[in-house]
Amino acid sequence: MLEHSTSPPESASEKGAGGIHQKREQILQGAMRIFLTLGYASTSMDRVAAEAGVSKQTIYSHFQDKEGLFKALMERVTIDRVRDLFGAVEDLSGEPESVLPRFATVLLTVMADEDYVSLLRLIIAESARFPELAQLYTRTVIQRGRHLLAHYFSSRPELEIADPEATAQLFIGSLVAYVLAQKILQGEQTIPIERDRIINSLVDLVLTPQNAPVTRSLNH
Questions:
Q1: Running DSSP on this structure, what letter comes out for residue 186?
Q2: Contact at 8 Å (CB) between 199 and 101?
């Protein structure tokens, strides 16, 4: 339920394009610290407002409610960073041999970021009590990435991909699983594997024609 605030409205100094961007970033930085310290359930808009040094009304004017704030935080840590690193990520174009390694490298670079890993750890920890957080992450990050990649696969008939959406899911899911195993489950200390090996193998799988002869039957 939305928390109501009796805090004063946003001041004149907080208005204007530059001021709005600065205030939004200030709120997000404060929210990140509180969410990671207290968890989603125990985070209140009062605590975020105090940490960010703004009024609750200012937070509501930017993000509406706690879910909106958390979603914006995920976008900042994930999607916005992908866009910054990859350039025109909304319009993938070019040859698969160069596009796919770049796409995978950017995603892994973002997902290996300390803020991203911390946020992902929080989502996993809270997902049993608040499944909507995991659903929000899936819609905001995985679904959007899958849509971008599936659209690209559909535009490259020479790849002979029968199910672009499923292939995009496998591609992105493999990268997420790599980060989970290495960063969350301490795989870097127990079963380390180089990032480039994962990327190269994924790209090879996609570039291999789907009608290539199968050497081993799944039915024994």
A1: -
A2: yes
Pick from 82-91, 113-122, 137-146, 183-192: least confident: 82-91
Answer yes or no: is 216 within a domain.
Answer: no
CATH of the domain at 50: 1.10.10.60
Whether pLDDT at 220 is above 60? no
**Domain finish residue from 7, 33, 66:** 66
| Cβ within 8 Å of residue 51, ≥6 positions away | 30, 31, 33, 34
Is 2 part of a structural domain of the chain?
A: no
Is the CB of residue 79 less than 8 Å from the CB of residue 144?
yes
Q: Which amino acid is at 192?
A: P
Q: Which domain holds residue 157?
A: 78-207
Q: Give me the sign of the Cα torsion angle 106, 109, 112, 115.
A: negative
Look up residue 45 and give its two tokens: 């808009």
Residue 194 lies in a domain: yes
Q: What is the per-residue DSSP string for 2-40?
A: PPP--SPPPPGGG-SHHHHHHHHHHHHHHHHHHHHHHHH
Q: What is the pLDDT of residue 210?
A: 60
